[in-house]
Amino acid sequence: MDAKICGIKDSKTLKYIVNHDKPPRFIGFITNYPKSRRYVKLKNLRKLINIDKKKIDFVSVLVRPTDEILEKIKDFKFDYYQLYGVTPEKTKIIKKKYNIKIITAITIENKNDVKEYKKFKSISEIILFDSKGYEKSIGFDHRLLNSVSTSVNKMIAGNIQYDDKLDKYSKIADIIDISGSLETSGEKDISKIKIFLENISKIKNEN
Fold it and tell me: Which candidate, 94, 111, 112, 114, places its Cα nearest to that of 102?
């Protein structure tokens, strides 16, 4: 079980996570979605991620990105683009043009939504199964993912709590994506991040 901490927007929190002795595999940054309180303007984002990220993969979270925004971030230190609302055809073009790994985000409300992953599994390194709420941390029934092929590298999000019994997710996914529950009054809370990373580490050790 790996982890992605999403919605980082300040250098203090980022440095804490990067230098943690049990860091997550991924850190996500909201790149073009101003509706989210976790959105970072491009000029600030470039400075924020210009650090030694060690072995962590940096993820640009993009909602229906335009060609203009993709050109603006092409030299940023991202390892993955996490794409919402992008067709399989456009995803292929983005992946090839920018030589970037892809996390395709599928938003889930019912079992029919889950089936969308089949259109992307040959293009994307990871499929993220998220709720319909985008920035609102709304949940969905994670049991719907039981039908997804075990050959798919699965990431799950959707109102997962930092102090949950996270081992229950290890049976249905490979990566936990978490953001809102790591916050207090709308800002990332290092004490919650610490607990979450320790919980993830315990699952890794048990496995």
Answer: 94
Q: CA 204, CA 87: separation in Å to the nearest integer?
A: 34
DSSP H helical ranges for the chain: 11-18, 42-48, 67-72, 88-98, 111-114, 190-206
- 2-206 folds as TIM Barrel (3.20.20)
Token output for 20: 């943690």
Helix (H) / strand (E) element for 191: namely helix 190-206
Query: Which pLDDT band holds residue 143 (cuts at 50, 70, 90)?
Result: confident
Contact 57, 100 (CB under 8 A): no
Q: How many helices (H) and strands (E) does the chain have?
A: 6, 10
Q: Which residues contact 76 (CB under 8 A, 6 or more apart)?
A: 45, 46, 49, 60
Structural domain spans, the chain: 2-206
